[in-house]
TrEMBL record:
<feature type="domain" description="NAD(P)-binding">
    <location>
        <begin position="36"/>
        <end position="330"/>
    </location>
</feature>
<protein>
    <recommendedName>
        <fullName>UDP-glucuronate decarboxylase</fullName>
        <ecNumber>4.1.1.35</ecNumber>
    </recommendedName>
</protein>
<dbReference type="GO" id="GO:0033320">
    <property type="term" value="P:UDP-D-xylose biosynthetic process"/>
</dbReference>
<keyword id="KW-0456">Lyase</keyword>
<dbReference type="Pfam" id="PF16363">
    <property type="entry name" value="GDP_Man_Dehyd"/>
</dbReference>
<keyword id="KW-0210">Decarboxylase</keyword>
<dbReference type="GO" id="GO:0070403">
    <property type="term" value="F:NAD+ binding"/>
</dbReference>
<keyword id="KW-0963">Cytoplasm</keyword>
<comment type="similarity">
    <text>Belongs to the NAD(P)-dependent epimerase/dehydratase family. UDP-glucuronic acid decarboxylase subfamily.</text>
</comment>
<comment type="function">
    <text>Catalyzes the NAD-dependent decarboxylation of UDP-glucuronic acid to UDP-xylose. Necessary for the biosynthesis of the core tetrasaccharide in glycosaminoglycan biosynthesis.</text>
</comment>
<dbReference type="InterPro" id="IPR036291">
    <property type="entry name" value="NAD(P)-bd_dom_sf"/>
</dbReference>
<dbReference type="InterPro" id="IPR044516">
    <property type="entry name" value="UXS-like"/>
</dbReference>
<dbReference type="GO" id="GO:0048040">
    <property type="term" value="F:UDP-glucuronate decarboxylase activity"/>
</dbReference>
<dbReference type="InterPro" id="IPR016040">
    <property type="entry name" value="NAD(P)-bd_dom"/>
</dbReference>
<comment type="pathway">
    <text>Nucleotide-sugar biosynthesis; UDP-alpha-D-xylose biosynthesis; UDP-alpha-D-xylose from UDP-alpha-D-glucuronate: step 1/1.</text>
</comment>
<dbReference type="GO" id="GO:0042732">
    <property type="term" value="P:D-xylose metabolic process"/>
</dbReference>
<feature type="region of interest" description="Disordered">
    <location>
        <begin position="1"/>
        <end position="21"/>
    </location>
</feature>
């Protein structure tokens, strides 16, 4: 049986999806949807859990090894009858009965994914294989949170989903960007070979409350530095660009992608593009105009520019971001001030 994929593109399915068990089949119509979120104790994962739990017809299972995530992010759900938290490493097989899988587990900040690159690539490859095996066994739909880093240091700008990327296969970032590229390949191979229902989101830089204060990513670094009265560390040359998406917009995009008819990959991100120097100046203006900005050394293979083309997300999912950077940064500042116990000065 050959059928076109839901995107109407060249991806051919060779087998129909596995039939859900009779109990789960009836549940689709009568009872709760059981949803697994891997990496559920992390930054995006915990916001996604919050949103999924708002629907009383959802049961949510969060799985995490707490490498970069924390139980604290999920504390309001622990003990809730529709919620379950499992300490588990996705590089090991997982046996649960679920209807949907949001597969987020993977360290995302460059300083963390470079800390143990072999573990990062195992998480991307073996972790994704395990979650696809689970999806195959139970007939669940699975969504992978891939990344704009699959475009590497892009030679096309803005980046469309059709662009194949410019990625260093042996660099210090490869455990992450090549790891996610293999994860995407595995998703499509399971889709074509076994008929698994897949969804792939290519996420562009996302920020918001609950990021680790010492996460190392640029927005969390600048906000924490400005609150502490330290210099903002702009990595040279400072003209490199990124496009920043607020976390509630991201979660909305992921849920629409999971619920829709399109496999993706689909870019989910905010097309507003800023140089790192512009970002530093904006944080300085909003948080503390007296802090200094200093140029520090950069790390190898840092992409020079990044901006999503979101025509597919708009057209196929009816999604576009709502929160601008100037609206999102103060929401993150409030959260960081609370956690750092540094109230805003009256004259700021
Ligand atoms: N935030 C972004 O800007 C961004 C951009 C592109 C893609 N993504 C992707 O989104 C997902 C979530 O990113 P995030 O920003 O929330 O990062 P995060 O580090 O806060 O969350 C990742 C979570 O995965 C968990 N984890 C890591 N390895 C694991 C393993 N082997 N087994 C089980 N759990 C494991 C961590 O403990 C953490 O809770 C990641 O897949 C990341 O690649 C994020
Ligand atoms: O969106 C994505 O696809 C990827 O984006 C980020 O990777 P990166 O853009 O390198 O994120 P940051 O570490 O926040 O760096 C962004 C830019 O800020 C600069 N930077 C970083 C930190 C800092 O203190 N100062 C600074 O100028 C970096 O040189 C870089 O140019 C995420 O960390 C990845 O998980 C994600 O997959």
């Amino acid at each position: 049986m050959a059928k076109e994929s839901s995107n109407g593109d060249q991806h051919t399915i060779t087998r129909p999806p596995p039939t859900p068990s009779p109990l789960r089949f009836s549940k689709f119509f009568q009872a709760n949807l059981r949803i697994l979120v891997t990496g559920g104790a992390g930054f995006i994962g915990s916001h996604l859990v919050d949103k999924l739990m708002e629907n009383e017809k959802h049961e949510v299972i969060a799985v995490d090894n707490y490498f970069t995530g924390s139980k604290d992010n999920l504390k309001k759900w622990i003990g809730h009858p529709r919620f379950e938290l499992i300490r588990h490493d996705v590089t090991q097989p997982l046996l649960v009965e679920v209807d949907q899988i949001y597969h987020l587990a993977c360290p995302a900040s460059p300083i963390f994914y470079k800390y143990n690159p072999v573990k990062t690539i195992k998480t991307n490859v073996i972790g994704t294989l395990n979650m696809l095996g689970l999806a195959k066994r139970v007939g669940a739909r699975i969504l992978l949170t891939s990344t704009s880093e699959v475009y590497g240091d892009p030679l096309e700008h803005p980046q469309k989903e059709e662009y194949w990327g410019n990625v260093n296969p042996i660099g210090v970032r490869s455990c992450y960007d090549e790891g996610k590229r293999v994860a995407e390949t595995l998703m499509f191979d399971y889709h074509r070979q076994h008929g698994i229902e897949i969804r792939i989101a290519r996420i562009f830089n996302t920020y918001g409350p609950r990021m680790n204060i010492d996460d190392g990513r640029v927005v969390s670094n600048f906000i924490a530095q400005a609150i502490r009265g330290e210099s903002l560390t702009v990595q040279a040359p400072g003209t490199q660009t990124r496009s920043f998406c607020y976390v509630s917009d991201m979660v909305d995009g992921l849920i629409r992608l999971m619920g829709g008819d399109h496999t993706g990959p689909i870019n989910i991100g905010n097309p507003g593009e800023f140089t790192m120097m512009e970002l530093a100046e904006t944080v300085k203006e909003l948080v503390d105009p007296t802090v200094q900005v200093k140029i520090v050394e950069n790390t190898p293979d840092d992409p020079r520019q990044r901006k999503p083309d979101i025509a597919k997300a708009k057209g196929l999912l009816g999604w576009e971001p709502k929160i601008t950077l100037r609206e999102g940064l103060p929401l993150m500042e409030d959260d960081f001030r609370q956690r750092l116990a540094v109230p805003k000065k009256q004259n700021n």
